[in-house]
Design goal:
Elements lengths: L2 H20 L5 H11 L5 H17 L7 H11 L1 H5 L25 H9 L4 H6 L6 E5 L16 E2 L5 E4 L9 H4 L3 E3 L2 H8 L8 E4 L6 H9 L5 E6 L2 H4 L2 H8 L4 E5 L5 H4 L7 E7 L14 H4 L2 H21 E11 L8 H10 L3 E4 L7 E3 L2 E4 L1 H4 L4 E8 L2
Parallel strand pairs: 5-6, 5-8, 6-7, 8-9
Antiparallel strand pairs: 1-3, 1-4, 2-3, 9-13, 10-13, 11-12, 12-13
Helix pairs in contact: 1-2, 1-3, 1-4, 3-4, 9-10
Length: about 400
């Protein structure tokens, strides 16, 4: 494909991304994968260039653009090489009309920028949310130590005790260490969130929103494969990935429990008052993960944020019923918004006498309300809010 044809292909994909964002459809990575499957003439270099165009353009636009072409024009304003490719050549984009308006720049839609400002997210912090994410690994200490793991690239230690940072684009899933279950792909901030649970060997720990089990595996390693570990989620597809991942990692204590949305308490009735710790990695806006999913900021609106905060509060309260006297709940969101972080903990503590906050004791993070906040600008991790509360009764 010519450079102009690659730009036109990216515009077509961006049209699909914009439509999906407005209709809460497929994420950009899935749209790209489906487009590539349907356009097999695109070679590996073409695919790489098109992917880079798409994500660079998404990062360059604040509000949802009117179209893929308007979005690409936004990038062309600051990149003369892209502007020159609107040349009308075969399979390329038509020349730019003087009447055409490029999409608006910025960090996010105006209402969401206001929420970030209210949460004391500085311009530098906000800009860092749209940079490319690094590639972090967690070393599985059930099988190998961080010092001894053998991988075929240069590595850096991160602040997470088992964390490594390797060059972006590394084909981790083809490495012997990955196939042997010695490493997992996991952001260092996510690793620290699991560390905040302070899971100990022999304990009973519940991962209430386990997803595909990334933090579940980290908890099992912290527990040294000793105790009871229950991984719960309402997403059958994601939760079904855990058994294979656990098998590869040598995790033997993880059990799975599929929950019915809105009826989680009934499914967990036998666990009430029995857990030493519960991790609530609650569904959230994902503002802290924009480096990986930049179009997520186009999918969020005030109504969806309100729905998420209500769900977070309900799951937080449910977690409190599952712990024994003296137990603890670790509340986590991958968000920088106070509605999903500090304000949630304040509301929980106000509604639950006898509970108190506790320092998560993490090596990174800035205090935010009763918890800690991590962000890419200050800490080099995805954005997270992490809080630990204990039941003193």
């Amino acid at each position: 494909m010519t450079p102009s044809a690659r730009v036109q292909a990216a515009i077509e994909i961006l049209d699909l991304v914009v439509k999906a964002a407005r209709g809460k459809g497929a994420p950009a990575d899935r749209i790209l994968a489906e487009w590539f499957r349907g356009h097999r003439f695109a070679g590996s270099k073409d695919k790489r260039a098109i992917r880079e165009h798409v994500y660079a353009v998404i990062r360059a636009c604040g509000p949802v653009p009117a179209s893929g072409r308007a979005a690409m024009l936004r990038r062309a304003e600051t990149d003369p090489e892209i502007a020159a490719l609107f040349d009308g050549s075969q399979y390329g984009p038509t020349p730019v009309s003087p009447r055409e308006e490029p999409a608006d720049g910025g960090i996010a839609p105006d209402w969401l920028e206001d929420r970030l400002i209210a949460a004391d997210v500085t311009e530098e912090m906000a800009q860092s949310l749209l940079e490319r994410a690094p590639l972090d690994l967690r070393v599985n200490n059930l099988k190998v130590t961080r010092d001894m793991v053998n991988i075929p690239v240069d590595k850096l230690f991160t602040a997470a005790p088992q964390g490594l940072r390797v060059p972006s684009g590394s084909q981790v899933e083809s490495w012997d260490a990955y196939l042997a279950g010695e490493i997992e792909i996991q952001d260092s901030g996510s690793q620290l969130a699991a560390l905040a649970v302070v899971a100990q060997p022999g304990e009973t720990v519940i991962d209430l929103c386990a997803g595909a089990g990334g933090k579940t595996l980290a908890l099992a390693a912290a527990m040294e494969n000793s105790g009871t570990l229950l991984a719960c989620d309402t997403d059958r597809g994601r939760l079904s990935r855990l058994p294979d991942r656990a098998g590869r990692a040598g995790v033997t204590i993880a059990q799975s429990l599929l929950l019915d949305p809105g009826h989680e308490a009934e499914a967990l009735a036998e666990w009430h008052g029995k857990a030493d710790a519960v991790l609530v990695d609650a569904p959230c806006s994902g503002t802290g993960t924009w480096r990986r999913n930049p179009e997520a900021r186009w999918r969020l609106d005030p109504a969806e944020l309100a729905r998420l905060t209500q769900l977070q509060a309900r799951l937080f309260a449910l977690a409190a019923t599952l712990v024994r006297p003296g137990g603890r709940v670790c509340y986590v969101t991958c968000s920088l918004l106070d509605e999903e972080g500090a304000k949630q903990v304040d509301a929980f503590l106000g509604a639950h006498p006898g509970w108190q906050s506790r320092d998560p004791g993490l090596p990174l993070g800035e205090k935010r309300g009763a918890g800690l906040r991590l962000d890419p600008y200050h800490h080099g991790t995805d954005g997270f809010f992490v809080a630990l509360v204990t039941n003193a009764c």
